[in-house]
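Why does residue order matter? Because the sequence determines the fold. Keep that principle in mind as you read this record.
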Amino acid sequence: MLRSAILILSGNAATSALLLARNLVLARLIPVADYGVAATFAMVMAVLEMASTLELHQQIVQSPRGEDPKFQAALQGFQVLRGVVTAAALVLLAGPIAQFMQIPQASPAYRWLALVPLMNALQHFDIHRAQRHGRYLPVLLTGTIPAFGALLALWPLARIFGDWHTALWAMLIYTALGLITSHLMAERRYRLRLDLAEMRGAMQFGAPLLINAAMMFLVFQGDKVIVGRLSGMEALAIYAMGVTLTLTPTLIGAKTIQNFFLPKLSAARATAEPALFRDLSAATFEAALLTGTVLMVGVFVLGSPVIALLLGEKYAALTGLFIPFAILQALRVAKTGPNVVALAAGQSSNGLWGNLPRVLVLPLSYLVLRETGSFLYVIWLGTAAEAVGFALTLWRLRQVMQPPPVWGALLTALIALAVTASATHLIGPVAQSPKSTVLIALVLLALQFLSMRGLRHVFSGRLT
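Structure:
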């Protein structure tokens, strides 16, 4: 198990590191306001993916019929139909979107972006089917190779354009390479079927996930839309960069946790092994909590130097927001544990409930930002909402099973959160005492490690 986990983690980390490097290099190469415009491209793609998400590729992994070629062809056909509709919608809505974001000059770029959902929909699902057999390399390479290619393309693109067009074409190159790689990694011939019965089944499975995707858009992009509308493109660039730097590590952890544990949890449930399912559930919870703790401790130790080194003076305003952003994302990633376990148990609505508080707080965030002009209050409001959301995911999980006993891991994660939250008020003294900061970080990580009994059992070979 440890070898598979290391492969998944390293692959996801490599892809995310390359995408993060692309964002950082892009921020260096173009003006701050242009990076804000580039951030709207990601927001637009997120809303389109949200509007059509059914997690069809996850059905290949989760469904007992995942090996059936006809089932795969039907899901691929449905995916292409979804991509065509999404692309057409973006072509029609490009102008209104640009007007809403107050950047009418970007409307042609939004039309070009219609190619992204279309190319994504044409990817081969074999890369996901391989995960059923513990083969993760195809899906990992389909992320890593495109990310590396897009990063290499930045310099020539910046020399040609020198503005937000650089981000547009880098995004198109990334998507095209992903499409090509998925087909090169496939074992089966690519087939498409349009089957109304399979579509209905996919819709039934995906309907809660579709609603959750709408929630996820509002969670990940709602604050950015508010900031862009009220504070302009430069402010959006600062806020989006803070989200990117703290969200990327948690996405690595969350994706690794789902890729590694979901097939094993599903198999344990399918073979009626309740003890194994319970122990794997505990390890899944602990892995999510560990991801959040590592992020908070890392920002606690390295936050300010990282901003200065990677972004320079253009993004100096981000320094005071870095730890609050990290705490927010740590609470968000903690929900991955109950969400993955619930999905393996057949409950696909768990994530929806966990995201509901974050959505409900958005109007208050709008009012607070309009009245104060401060991002900090918006971040702390989101943090409180994520804490409530975590509690809701546990409550929903109890509808289908008893949550695993992970109180020790939860307590040590809360201690790490309390220490890093306090650091936001002591950032001057902390910055002057790096040895104390490193010592505190090591103690926090040691406490977290000692509390993770389930995860240690997974990697020691006691769980198979």
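Residues 1-194 form one domain.
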